[in-house]
């Protein structure tokens, strides 16, 4: 995946539900840590055309402007949505609060490492805050980014993404579709092989087309998830992590956890290996089929659950003794992490193809990884058990 929130070109299609790349999936590109870049975001798309159900658009990419201080809000003061009671304003406040909470918890757990912060804005509207802790005592690399951005997209892109590219709008010509995207995204790579990697991402996306724009009504949706990628299965840790995800889901709908756990297992699948990247968690996208306030509350609950789901595991495992063999296996599993992010993750591939800021795109990758020719763990070993669980997803609760 890659740090993100930025870029702007489209390659939109409608694949299977478990891997759908709809407009919501594209918002995942902007906002995920696995996305285009914390440095750029698009202001306009032009020369869009539809070919075989896809939209290919030329891109105008704005370079970010470094800022010395964090603004109170990235929302435009003249924007009616900037009022503190709007969904946009409350979602921005939530992701910035979570960024502060997670970074404070990670620094406390690490003991010596401190986050480096970059604040940026974009001329077209919005900006972001990127934070990275590197070479700490506990964490090899940890990144926590937020972004709030504005832009426009061609109506063709909007209609194709929503599955009605050929819709007849009575001969009227639609204009550009304004969009709003905000999100938080993070990947945390500990040094100890018995301490798992964590990824989380929560995002909100709107189109806000003018009333006189045919074929592009106002739309909104939420997406996100939290997933765990250990090198060794410590069952009490995995059960703890999944229990926190289930608890957050059950507060809103008991069907959410089993549904989003399967979605997570399906999404983080390394096809050429025939295995999952890790031991899952929850993942959802394109969510607008429930009350908006309910989904805002759900996304907030999930994001606020990151610290209680992860920090107790880190505190238990950060000082666990390990051998060179344990470290070598961790590096092999890190290699799988790299493979998924560079080959399959929508945000990363989107950013690489559209000229995003490379440091932001690749910030989710670990500092070190390993590829060993034809490595096969011994059947029945702890390493084999992990691989088996990645090939055959398990129910942990």
TrEMBL record:
Gene Ontology CC terms: chloroplast stroma
UniProt GO MF annotations: coproporphyrinogen oxidase activity
Family: Belongs to the aerobic coproporphyrinogen-III oxidase family.
Keyword check for DNA-binding: no
Entries under InterPro entries matching the protein: Coprogen_oxidase_aer, Coprogen_oxidase_aer_sf, Coprogen_oxidase_CS
Pathway: Porphyrin-containing compound metabolism; protoporphyrin-IX biosynthesis; protoporphyrinogen-IX from coproporphyrinogen-III (O2 route): step 1/1
Cellular compartment(s): Plastid, Chloroplast
Domain of life of the source: Eukaryota
Reactions the enzyme catalyzes: coproporphyrinogen III + O2 + 2 H(+) = protoporphyrinogen IX + 2 CO2 + 2 H2O
Pfam families xref list: Coprogen_oxidas
Keywords, ordered alphabetically: Chlorophyll biosynthesis, Chloroplast, Heme biosynthesis, Oxidoreductase, Plastid, Porphyrin biosynthesis, Transit peptide
Official protein name in the record: Oxygen-dependent coproporphyrinogen-III oxidase, chloroplastic
EC number(s) on file: 1.3.3.3
């Amino acid at each position: 995946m890659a740090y993100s929130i930025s870029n702007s070109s489209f390659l939109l299609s409608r694949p299977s539900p478990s891997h759908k790349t709809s407009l919501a999936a594209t918002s995942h590109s902007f906002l995920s840590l696995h996305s285009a870049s914390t440095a750029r975001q698009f202001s306009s798309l032009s020369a869009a055309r539809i070919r075989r159900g896809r939209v290919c658009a030329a891109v105008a990419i704005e370079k970010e402007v470094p800022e010395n201080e964090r603004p109170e809000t990235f929302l435009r003061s003249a924007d009616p949505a900037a009022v503190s009671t709007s969904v946009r304003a409350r979602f921005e406040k939530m992701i910035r609060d979570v960024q502060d909470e997670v970074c404070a918890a990670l620094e406390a757990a690490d003991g010596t490492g401190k986050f480096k912060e970059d604040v940026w804005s974009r001329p077209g509207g919005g900006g972001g805050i990127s934070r990275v802790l590197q070479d700490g005592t506990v964490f090899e690399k940890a990144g926590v980014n937020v972004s709030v951005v504005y832009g426009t997209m061609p109506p063709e892109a909007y209609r194709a993404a929503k599955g009605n590219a050929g819709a007849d709008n009575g001969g009227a010509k639609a204009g550009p579709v304004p969009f709003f995207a905000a999100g938080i995204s993070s990947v945390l790579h500990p040094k100890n092989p018995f301490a798992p990697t964590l990824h989380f991402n929560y995002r909100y996306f709107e189109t806000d087309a003018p009333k006189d724009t045919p074929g592009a009504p106002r739309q909104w949706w939420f997406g996100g998830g939290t997933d765990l990628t250990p090198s060794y299965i410590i069952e009490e840790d995995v059960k703890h992590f999944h229990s926190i995800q289930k608890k957050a889901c059950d507060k809103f709908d008991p069907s959410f956890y089993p549904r989003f756990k399967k979605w997570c297992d399906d999404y983080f699948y390394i096809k050429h290996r025939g295995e999952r990247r890790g031991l899952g968690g929850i993942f959802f996208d394109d969510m607008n089929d429930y009350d908006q306030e309910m989904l805002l509350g759900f996304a907030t609950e999930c994001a606020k659950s990151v610290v209680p789901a992860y920090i107790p595991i880190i505190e238990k495992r950060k000082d666990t003794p390990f051998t060179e063999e344990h470290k070598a296996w961790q590096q092999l599993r890190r290699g799988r992490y790299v493979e998924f992010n560079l080959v399959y993750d929508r945000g990363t591939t989107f950013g690489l193809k559209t000229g995003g800021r490379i440091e932001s795109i690749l910030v989710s990758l670990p500092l070190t990884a390993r590829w060993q020719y034809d490595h096969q763990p011994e059947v029945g070993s702890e390493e084999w058990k992990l691989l088996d669980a990645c090939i055959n997803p398990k129910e942990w609760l």
